[in-house]
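Q: I'm building a small set of examples for a reading group on sequence design. Run inverse folding on the following structure and report the sequence directly after it, with nothing in between.
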């Protein structure tokens, strides 16, 4: 099938050896004209009856070149268009006909609404005493849904600790500075082991609890 490029402002004559002109594809808007019927808009999937027309012109009245693929035949041809579909207005979906199946670990959908799935287990651990200059593991790794580990510094006097992995030391990790009369706390959402290091000059005492879903 012929493909013609029409430059801006160009009028391109097309000989019509058959009765039906079909526009198969086009990269933009153009005009189909002939003395017998005047000017018509050229669009993808349109067919033009050229029973008494021997020549038409493709006109590009725009500012960019337009590439047109067309076909001329003696019989009308119908079928599904393959051109580009342009949606000019906003698309609004009023409802979803079929239900949606969702697999979720943090939230669920009930009656079309999203609901957070809370933890349903609280595990309290014995207080952890960390001597000065040492580190201790606070909790083991636990790959459970919605796991949260809460750590509170309740040392006898104002003391700083660092929270992190097994390599935590005085140069890195989350800083937690507190005391029994001014406790400091933090919550960590992680499945890994959680450790604490005491870089201070006196013992540090931490309370630890876990929340999760089995």
């Amino acid at each position: 099938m012929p493909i013609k490029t029409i430059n801006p402002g160009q009028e391109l004559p097309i000989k019509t050896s058959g009765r039906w002109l079909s526009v198969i594809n086009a990269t933009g808007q153009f005009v189909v004209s002939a003395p017998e019927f005047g000017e018509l808009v050229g669009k993808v999937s349109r067919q033009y009856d050229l029973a008494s027309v021997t020549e038409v012109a493709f006109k590009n009245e725009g500012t960019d070149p337009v590439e047109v693929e067309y076909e001329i035949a003696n019989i009308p041809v119908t079928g599904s268009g393959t051109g580009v579909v342009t949606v000019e207005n906003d698309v609004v979906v009023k409802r979803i006909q079929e239900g949606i199946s969702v697999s979720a670990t943090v939230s669920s959908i009930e009656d079309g609404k999203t609901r957070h799935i809370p933890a349903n287990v609280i595990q309290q651990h014995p207080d952890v005493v960390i001597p000065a200059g040492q580190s201790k593991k606070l909790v083991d790794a636990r790959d459970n849904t919605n796991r949260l580990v809460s750590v509170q510094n309740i040392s006898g006097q104002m003391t700083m600790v660092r929270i992190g992995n097994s390599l935590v030391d005085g140069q890195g990790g989350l800083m937690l500075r507190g005391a029994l009369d001014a406790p400091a706390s933090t919550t960590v959402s992680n499945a890994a082991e959680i450790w604490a290091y005491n870089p201070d000059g006196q013992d540090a005492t931490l309370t630890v609890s876990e929340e999760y879903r089995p």
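The chain has a mean pLDDT of 86.
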